[in-house]
Fold:
Amino acid sequence: MLDLQLKSAFLVPFFGELPAYFPFWAKSCEFNHPNFHWFVYNDRITESKALNPAVTLIPYQFEQMVADFKQRLDINIPGHFLRRVCDYRLMFYFLRHDKENLDRYDFIGFTDMDLVYGRLLGCMPEDMNSYSMISADNDRPCGPFTLINRSQLHALKEYKYIKKHMEPKEHRTFNESKELLQVVSGTLPPYCRVDLLQPTMTRGVSNTKVYAIWEKGKVTIYDIYFNRLEAGFFHFSRYKDKKRFVIDADALHHDRWGVFKFGITGFTSRWNRTKMNLSLLI
Structure:
């Protein structure tokens, strides 16, 4: 039986200007309150504030992170290599647990911003607390979405090779490795599956010719094979940096909007939905 009292926190460092799609990401977070919370650490904001009930913004400089790694973990961060933040975020609990009172959460996670969330609680396994890790990939951690049971986090801090993964300049994707899974599993089994959280990665579903509709907290994906599936989130990383990816800021104020290869759009006319369907053919 799913324990509705369990709480999860995602720790999301993002250095630089927050992306144009950030408001849509944050709105999709809000519908998952109070079971999930997101702490966003950013160097362009000046004061801590609650953006909405599920998202807290916290000012945090890269240089302060480097100092915290050294002081709290005796780990030397080699320089301003932003790609490495994907691995650094694994250790943010040890840098920030007292500042944000993170021990009130049962799971601590990492995630990306280039996605929109659906109804996450419905994608969680029954008896969540009996698992060491919950991720949106099969048999391994998932960069866009991974939760680690807080009771298992100590193993990460004590891992004898943790410096080897944190101190090099080169990005080594430790955050998505089976090695990480083995480190935090301990005596508890992992729950690493794509089917509910990220169905675009399952067999028989396209992960390229696909779009998503977000509606009042629910995400539904549609693909070229006529699949129509509810998803825990829709990851649009392959689209976000294209010039053609245009964001209609006004769509944020509606209860329903779409994410596809040409951007984020509202449903102010039938033509918008037609464009999304036609995008599957391109």
Q: What stands out?
A: The helical segments are 22-30, 62-73, 85-88, 92-96, 154-158, 162-166, 178-185, 270-279. The longest strand covers residues 8-14.
